[in-house]
Amino acid sequence: xxxPTLALYWAASCGGCEIAVLDLHARILDVAxxxxxxxxxxxxxxxxxxxxxxxxxxxxxCLFNGSIRNSENAEIAHLLRAKAKTLVxxxxxxxxxxxxxxxxxxxxxxxxxxxxEESPSTVKLNGGxxxxxxxxxxxxxxxxxxxxxxxxxxxxxxxxxYFVPGCPPQPERIWEVIEHIMSGRPLPSKxxxxxxxxxxxxxxxxxxxxEKKLKQFYRPFEIVPDPNLCLLDQGIVCMGPATRDGxxxxxxxxxxxxxxxxxxxxxxxxxxxxxxSALSSVIDAxxxxxxxxILDQIADPMGTFYRFSLAHSILRRVEKP
Amino acid sequence: xxxxxxxxxxxxxxxxxxxxxxxxVSRIKSAPNVRVIRTxxxxxxxxAFVLKxxxxxxxGVIVMGCxxxxxxxxxxNYKTIRRIPFLxxxxxxxxxxxxxxxxEWVSASEGDRFAQVVNEMTEEIRKLGPLSLHVHRDxxxxxxxx
Lengths: 321, 146
Fold this sequence. Notes:
The complex is a heterodimer.
Chain A: E1 5-10, H1 16-22, H2 27-34, E2 36-39, H3 48-53, E3 59-65, E4 68-70, H4 71-83, E5 84-90, H5 92-96, H6 108-118, E6 134-137, E7 140-143, E8 147-152, E9 162-164, H7 171-183, H8 201-204, H9 250-253, H10 271-282, H11 288-296, H12 301-305
Parallel strand pairs in A: 1-2, 1-3, 3-5, 5-9
Antiparallel strand pairs in A: 4-8, 6-7
Chain B: E1 7-12, H1 16-25, E2 34-39, H2 47-55, E3 60-65, H3 76-93, E4 101-105, H4 111-128, H5 134-137
């Protein structure tokens, strides 16, 4: 009986999760020693046909990062679900759509119209040239994936066994998850979140928090925040209260507000709803006009509150007429 | 057949639910389109409840609470008066007409006001038409992770 087998795959992804795995530095050698890596497009030269040829459930562990944006992402998600015993949604995109999920603020048609016709550096050709899934030419035919209308998270397409949040998951947390699996100790029940805490980012943040009474919101460039006080106390919108802990509050320690990349805290399905709730609790006004004035100061609520989690929110995408 | 709006009404126990009850015992006629869910305070209404109501097929959502200064828990409705306008902006961001979400203060003695608000909201939603969302049309249901 050989070593347990490991696969890593990237769907609609920036590649950062792969880099985070490589950020294990020397410990990547421990991973390579403990596992037989059988599929890792970014690093090793295996092909899809190698994957198709494998027996079902013959891959012990698959770390799948990236969201489902097109037909290829979905096809390989289904293929890996069949070939893997344990499938982990790895990183924010796989968990909740991630940054690619922001495409759900618009439509495929509007995206293509801008990208292929209207952007300043595009030369519009003969009424527009758009990608075709099938193209025939004298040399042969080419098939390319079809871009979906809506970005989806991995668990909206296949059943997922475990979730590792983060954009990217922090290398220390990745090591904890892989070490746990290598040790053979029992894992928590299926559907659990691994490599992250059970509280919010505020719990890891070292800044001093006082009672919040906000009459004004600021964008990060508008004030010089006190490095020791809570950013939200100072009027800067910070996603900490609506974000799961596990990252070590890296952003607030660097004087920038949390962006919410570890996704919603336990038992919360919609980060945007939670931020609306949290901020409403601390806005110090009860005159309707004053409230509207203060709310006007929150720039881009959709992009701020759902920066990583739009595809996995309750409503998932913007309705277009 | 005319469109019959499905409206979810979140009513606080102390004022608005009692006001609705008063409308009932006073035999005041009102549209039957508001399905009432009682919470102890309007401040209990998590914005996620409202989004969930739209996801599950509501054409409109109305939140009713005590008048400012009369909240049984002192400050609950002060949070509501900020949460609901904020939430209107959020649903508008999703492409949902903000008139589909409404906040009204209805006291325990305002049975007739409850009926009036219900009738007004029903007619407004009837004019706006049924709400069709992507999540209704998409066959796959989300899997909630822990």
